Amino acid sequence: METVNLTSNSLSPEMQSNSDRVEKQSPAEKRAACLQQLLEISKTDGVAALSELQAHAAALASELAIPSTRDEDWRFTDLSKIVAAQFVAADGKASVSTDAIAGFVLPEARSSRIVFVDGVYNPELSDLSAADNVTVGNSDALATVSKHVAQLPGSEEVFTTLNTATFADVAVVHVAKKAIAETPLHLLFVSTGSNRISQPRCMVVAEASSQVSLIEDYVSLGSAQGGDGSGFSNAVTEIVVEANAQVEHSLIQREAMGSFHIGKTSVIQAQDSRYTNIAVQIGAALSRHNVETHHQGTQVETNLYGLALVAGEQLADTHSNIQYNHPHCQSDQLYKAIATDKGRSVFSGRVGVPKLAQQTSAAQLNRNLLLSNKARVDTKPQLEIIADDVKCSHGATVSQLEDDQVFYLQSRGIDRDSAQHLLIEAFAAEILLKLPVASLRETLTATVTQRTESAI
Amino acid sequence: MGSSEVILSVKGLTASINGTPILKGVDLEVKAGEIHAIMGRNGSGKSTLSKVLAGHPAYEVTGGEVLFHGEDLLELEPEERARKGVFLAFQYPLEIPGVSNLDFLRASYNARRKEQGLEEVDAFDFDDVVEEKLDVVKMDAAFLNRSVNEGFSGGEKKRNEILQMALLEPSLGILDETDSGLDIDALRTVSEGVNQVANENNAMVLITHYQRLLDYIKPGFVHVMYDGRIIKTGGKELALELEEKGYDWIDEKLAAGVA
To answer: Quick check: A408 and B56 CB within 8 A?
Structure first.
């Protein structure tokens, strides 16, 4: 049985105190107990206006467990490190100075920034003076959008349920009908570390014919600011894109390398709307991004792009899911990953095209660059196509730096190291160049170069 | 011309790939102001020679020597050879998605200038430099903003190679089947480009299957490569002879032990 693993020297001090209890548990029981513990630790007063919803989710969560790799959706991503870890409540008391987040401020969104620390709004760190034609706030600004919270399909998923049951606050973005928010909005979620678990939550509603660009950004305090690089963020963002509205959504996960991040983006799109997601996953020891879009009308356009960078022993997992329900809709997906050292990247892309979704156009491509023979990539396209008059494509590639490309660059006077950097940057650039602000493009390109140094 | 500087001196060069010998003792001397053509069948070792001179890592040099301006070329990394003035126009130029042609050209141009002890050129000034060179190959400036060779037609890729050569002003240009697959307009453009770059201080080595290229670029020397060696050298009349008779007569001569 599993008990052979539980020798005393493999136990952390915290676990030793519970060792009698732990030894009697099966792995399944441990996964259930872990979730209950996370639920208990994360418990907050919640948001008054949503108390019924949160209580309902808490009841649901009490029946759930952390998934195992036997669960198809988690086949390649083993959560046992989360089960084994000991997290503590994010009590919201960690004090964070303006200086501590200065490095994360985007010049292009300096005054259209809302900051949440461990999932709780921090007005002192926020500056919304330039956020035009849009309502941005925390749960106090929920008002008319509260009815949308946790209403999208998939809200019963375990980590989403955990978040719904326990979030202390909500980041709210509400773009009124025909309003055009010119300045990108920076939603900055700061993790303070020290094994704190936080439950960041976002609710975005773009009303008919409106337009907005969001930058959802997960960061950890650096060691100079008191961060120790640990922690667990379990984030959920829901986005309602009403008729003819356009939402451009950049999602940057650049948390500390010792932390865990599980994030969900759930989108519902009405007719003639366009939603674009550009996700960059470069942080955390283990990260998962679930992105789901549900179509509720014709001529919907969905674009999902992503770049994952895994170095050291990082694992980054992206699960995309586009559910068509109407004719004449289209989607484009391009997910890229760079894996070096012992890094692991996982991609699963589901596209559902039922009978009534004729004239669908859906493209999906997953490209991976392996820079080390110990790195690993798992990729799984899942197309479920019932309609017969559609244009659907999918593909996955895994490649290494091509010697002939490196030689070509060398033959033009560019040294071997620079040539390799150039090729890696170029691979990443296809996604990074889609980001709407230059400062992020530059910062993230530099990170890619630095993190892949060991492969060159 | 007899007193011109020797740019390239190849003696008894042998090289193999994955243990298979391809070059079996190549001798070649190229002086400033000269244009050489190396002809031969597929598999005779022409392209291998060009790649070995440029420093392709897949080939192992097993013997012989190569001097470039009197310096041991084989000791140098590919990028060092390029900076010192060896230029290989690729038979199949690589596509580099995500790297802008303009940035690539500037990085390359500056690497060469740095080696020459000249000041590097910033993005702004480089626009003027490249603008002027575009005329050499009649290339549209729109190509500069695209990724290197990505989605270029065969002819556009070859023009881009000659544009690079025009920018880098090498002292030795090696053109590996630059003419293959080009229509007559592209062939003329590329040839005129090469003729504009060629001068009394540099040298060109054209590697080709077809005599047609030599209607536009006039070589002083034509070499025939066969089974990893240069077995015959002559003037441009040799190219015409090859065009007319094919390579079979060489087989016959070799069989008779004459060549």
So the answer is: no
